[in-house]
Design goal:
This protein has about 180 residues and is mainly beta. It has strands spanning about 1-5, 10, 20, 25, 35-40, 50, 60, 70-75, 80-85, 105-110, 115-120, 145, 160-165, 170-175. The protein is built from no helices and 14 strands. It has a four-stranded antiparallel β-sheet, with no helix packed on it. It starts with a strand and ends with a strand.
Length: about 180
């Protein structure tokens, strides 16, 4: 779930944002709003509230503009959550779409609410910028990236990142060196 810097919840899939919040619900009753809970605690004191207006950010980077489609996976080998974010590497410009020229970040945390440690940030367009035809050397970050748990090594250090870069299914191998 995405949020503004103050934690206000929004349902836009396109407006770039500086922060993210969490929500959860009962699998059996996920269709019912009454089963939803919103993270309203801190990294050290987690808490869940009934009202979306009480939601607090799990990640807030004031100088970044993230695509509102984050990916989060549990990595059993590391015993941590992996959060993947696509962002606009030039937030001061009028080009607000990270689709073809977006940057990419991968973060780790023992809890889905943080605190988060950045283990990779492209800093600029990832991996090489815009393309019109799925050129393996020039596709952008896309609008969403995720690390499916099916493609994690047993120790959790090798993974495959899937993204919508270049409007194609883009897959990149990653290795954590710690």
């Amino acid at each position: 779930m995405r949020s503004t810097t103050t934690g206000n919840v929004s349902n836009s899939a396109y407006d770039l944002i500086p922060a993210f919040s969490l929500m959860r619900g009962s699998r059996a009753n996920l269709r019912w709003r009454s089963s939803w809970k919103f993270f309203c605690g801190t990294a050290s004191v987690p808490a869940w509230c009934d009202r979306p207006g009480s939601a607090k950010s799990i990640l807030n980077v004031a100088d970044k503009k993230f695509a509102p489609r984050a990916g989060m996976s549990w990595n059993p080998g590391l015993g941590k959550f992996m959060l993947t974010l696509v962002y606009d590497p030039t937030p001061a410009t009028t080009n607000d779409s990270p689709r073809f020229t977006g940057g990419l970040m991968v973060l780790l945390s023992p809890n889905p609410w943080g605190p988060w440690e950045t283990v990779f940030s492209s800093g600029t367009s990832w991996p090489g910028g815009s393309t019109a035809v799925c050129d393996p050397a020039g596709w952008g970050a896309g609008e969403r990236a995720d690390i499916p748990t099916k493609y994690l090594s047993a120790d959790g250090k090798t993974f495959y990142l899937f993204s919508s870069g270049g409007d194609c299914l883009s897959i990149a191998r990653g290795v954590l060196i710690q």
